[in-house]
Design goal:
The structure is a single chain. By secondary structure, this protein is of the alpha/beta class. The chain is built from 4 helices and 3 strands; from the N terminus they run H-E-H-E-H-E-H. Strands 1-2-3 form a 3-stranded parallel beta sheet, sandwiched between helices.
């Protein structure tokens, strides 16, 4: 869906290095074009491990097109988001 790409591009453009893109289980390759924009802006990319996903297409596409910072289960991704947010509040 184009709106996912538009959302990620908008986040990359407005948040820069504070941007975070998360790809979970899903079909097709939605979000890949502008997940790259988040990474290029210095942001963080997190992707569900394809082996843990019900539908592996989106996570696999993300991993093949972007160097991801976090790859794991949804719980691991959530933990990384919490740690990242806590670290930003402390600065």
């Amino acid at each position: 869906m184009q709106w996912i790409d538009d959302l990620f591009f908008s986040i990359a453009e407005s948040a820069g290095e504070n941007a975070v893109g998360v790809i979970l289980s899903g079909a097709l390759s939605d979000g890949m074009a502008d997940l790259k924009a988040i990474k290029a802006a210095g942001g963080t990319c997190m992707v569900q491990s394809p082996g843990d996903a019900a539908f592996q297409s989106m996570p696999q596409s993300a991993l093949s097109s972007v160097e991801c910072d976090v790859v794991g289960t949804p719980l691991e991704i959530a933990s990384s988001l919490i740690e990242s947010a806590a670290g930003r509040r402390c600065k």
